[in-house]
Amino acid sequence: MKQYSQMNKAELTDVKNEMDRTFSKYSESGRKLNMTRGVPSDEQLALCNDMLTCLCASDYISANGTDCRNYGGIDGIPEMKKIFADLLDLTQDEVIVGGNSSLALMFDNVAVNMSHGVREGLPWQSQGKVKFLCPAPGYDRHFTICKYFHIEMIPVAMGNEGPDMDTVEKMVSSDPMIKGIWCVPRYSNPTGIIYSDETVRRFAKLKPAADDFRIYWDNAYAFHDLDSQNAKILNIIRLCEEYGNPNMPLVFASFSKVSFAGASVTCMASSKSNCEYIRKRLTVQTIGPDKLNQLRHARFFKDAAGVMTHMEKHAAILRPKFKLVSDTLHRELDGLGIAGWTEPAGGYFVSFNAQEGCAKRIVALCAQAGVALTPAGATYPNGNDPQDRNIRIAPTCPPLDELKSALEIFCAAVKLASIEKCLRGINN
Amino acid sequence: MKQYSQMNKAELTDVKNEMDRTFSKYSESGRKLNMTRGVPSDEQLALCNDMLTCLCASDYISANGTDCRNYGGIDGIPEMKKIFADLLDLTQDEVIVGGNSSLALMFDNVAVNMSHGVREGLPWQSQGKVKFLCPAPGYDRHFTICKYFHIEMIPVAMGNEGPDMDTVEKMVSSDPMIKGIWCVPRYSNPTGIIYSDETVRRFAKLKPAADDFRIYWDNAYAFHDLDSQNAKILNIIRLCEEYGNPNMPLVFASFSKVSFAGASVTCMASSKSNCEYIRKRLTVQTIGPDKLNQLRHARFFKDAAGVMTHMEKHAAILRPKFKLVSDTLHRELDGLGIAGWTEPAGGYFVSFNAQEGCAKRIVALCAQAGVALTPAGATYPNGNDPQDRNIRIAPTCPPLDELKSALEIFCAAVKLASIEKCLRGINN
Q: How far is residue B219's CA from residue B182's CA, in Å, rounded to a whole number?
């Protein structure tokens, strides 16, 4: 395969004409394919259908005698606390089980730290312009929370072992207005990388200039392996304790992609002392999470081992989809010198890097041809990918045949956008 | 029955000695009775046990085709929106269905108005010292939200038709830092009164000095009648529209005391335009409420009429309890000139007024005798009942025999505290 950069104008024009014809056909076919978000497929959701019926009409008492139908219990029932604690290798008093949305827990935590401060500290908002480090590419909804609270987002480069820790250390230790950092430490959204032990250790050892600096450790894909090797990450809460930063990490986890995205349970975890602060606030804020749904989850999964066994069923459904992405990209794009991508062993995304200045065009071409992708730039703070290269591929939801079509169109779009770029280069 | 105020010292001392003996016996009996909060009883909760099994394993698609197991739908499924809209006499686009806690919706709304302002307005917190009018006696959790946000609470007297509207009108129209008022318009917590048509109309006609003033209309007992007369309140949203204040009211309702307090659905309602603002924010804040629990509620209740029929079953359980309160208080306290109380036709509470300076003593005496009551003062901002008179009686949870014992002890405590007061008066 000849690299596009080595083709002459005539060769490029030939390929372009061919791709234009291909695209006309795609556009006329009226397809509607969606790879925008990390959504579980019907087949995955069906794995939990028995959870809809797993409580009988007399099953509503939790392990500590709480009637889950009634008021009481601000931070979850013991069964679910134990499952989350076991999964995350924590104790139950380091865990607060919430409702359906871990995003809501994160938003809430940022909101409270802005308005009331961290523990006894001053409200962030009263201290000046609050800044967060944002490893990028990253998760757009983290960035949206920052934007909502007018928090300045400072992008930090993501590598294969996590964020660029030299930069993180330097900035966190020198600027007291840096109050937080967003991390997806395992199967990072979207790159799919896993933070190395060294990275996690360097996080735990941080010496923040701000004593109210917090690590937002969104362990969204904590149990979401594609194979059974179960690549581990180090325990950020234990390590932070060890290095004298016990209250620095705020860990979030979710069953949105374990049970039902539309009716799951979530948790936040932190030091016992942080959890005590948070529980006190929660009594002001809510009458508590849905305890019956927690009981439903506990009955269905039984224990942490039950969750991990269940996750293997998810993996069996997802592996062929990720393989199809990898196979298709290799087949269509290898040797053209126009793209790179990640091949994650878990999580929900493939991070795709086109040539500089091509991502928006690729997404637009796909849209014309009926394939919806996450907007180009969404993986960067303020939706601004300075190189316009990164595209998040979300292959989990479409059935395999639709995914196949979508990926073919995607690859054609990558080729066409790249040729257009080469031709512009020649013409200029 | 001779009024205590007309007894001489010897007579009072006789009664006191008798009551002291009675109390010693109570205290020795080791009772544990609880009338602290408005909690549904086991018998009420059991009315909904079939909801635990009402979804079968293939029932998860809502009326608009949404798969309730998956992501999507920020403001509730159409079935639940319709039920709430019909119950509140609103349209579906005036309703946002949330999760398990209406308190969380209220907290959230205050939080956002503090930090980001109302619609395009300035954040409340940036305008100076925010104040709320707090009709009192009122609901302690409303006051706790204000306290959390350092909002100054201005008590307003509650009458039989609602808050003292002369005061409300005067203050709201003259002070631009008054940004809100807490209302429980139907079976008010704790007095059980229903806002009269005139009161609701005067609310709708308010001319606030602040254009970002909001009425927090916590219609917590919207469907919670003790008899079938269904005393109505006027529709605050329609009336505000009519009087040119369409965005002023924020209405809250909850199924916590309809289905399961620990796993219910709640809603907020406001103008279509306000709801559009709120939906936009919710997409930043959460991936959405538990849709399967909404579907469960929709299947179980079917429609608004189903809810109202169900509420009659609650009423049948609660009527004897409220009757027992009324009968016992009349039997034990009539003619003594030491107490007054409300006799509500719905809701969850009886508001009891002792003689000035006696409420704390009564609650303490009850605690000694094993009867837990809502702390005296809790029904006033900052827990401070200036006259130390008001006690909230919550008769719904205990079984009838326990309620009988608790009320007897309560009445004895009222007598003893009143005698002590009379004796202090004579001795001074």
A: 10
What 3-state DSSP class applies to B172? helix
Residue B31 pLDDT level (bands cut at 50, 70, 90): confident
Contacts of A40 in chain B (CB under 8 A): 70
How far, in Å, are A101, A298, B84 from residue B294 at the CA level? 15, 20, 11
- Report yes or no: A61 at the B interface, CB cutoff 8 Å: no
The strand pairing partners of A390, in sequence order, are A353
> Which chain A residue's Cα is nearest to B115?
A115
User: Measured in Å, how far apart are chain A's first and last C-alpha atoms?
Assistant: 25
Q: DSSP string spanning A179-191?
A: EEEEE--SS-TTT
pTM: 0.96
What's the rounded Cα separation, in Å, for the pair A138 and A180? 15
Query: Side chain identity at A123, as an amino acid letter?
Result: P
Tell me the DSSP string of A62-95.
Answer: -TTS-BTTSS--SS--HHHHHHHHHHHT--GGGE
DSSP letter assigned to residue A117: -
Which one of A286, A374, A396 makes the best mutation probe of the B interface by having the most chain B beta carbons within 10 Å?
A286
Taking the C-alpha atoms of residue B257 and residue B238, their distance in angstroms, rounded to an integer, is 26
φ, ψ of residue B148 in degrees (nearest 5): -60, -40
A132 CA: distance to closest CA in chain B (Å) = 17
Res B230 pLDDT > 80:
no
Of B182, B216, B160, B153, the C-alpha closest to B351 is B160
Q: Report, in this order, helix, strand and coil percent for chain B, each rounded to 5.
A: 45, 15, 40
Nearest to B53 among A57, A67, A70 (CB): A57
- Amino acid identity at B312: E
Contact present, B362 and B421 (Cβ < 8 Å): no
Q: How far apart are CA A190 and CA A394, in angstroms?
A: 9
Higher pLDDT, B231 or B224: B224
Three-class DSSP category at B360: helix
3-state secondary structure (DSSP) of residue A136: strand
**Chain centroid to CA A408:** 25
Structure-block tokens of residue A214: 């917090």
DSSP annotation of A297: H
pLDDT digits (tens, 9 = 90+) for B234-284: 999 999 999 999 999 999 999 999 999 999 999 999 999 999 999 999 999
| Nearest one of A153, A281, A288, A140 to A218, comparing CA atoms | A140
What three-state secondary structure class fits B164? coil
Contact A71 B261 (CB under 8 A): yes
Written as one letter, the residue type at B411 is C
Looking at the complex, report in whole angstroms how far the Cα of residue A278 sits from the nearest Cα belonging to chain B. Answer: 13
Contact B114 A115 (CB under 8 A): yes
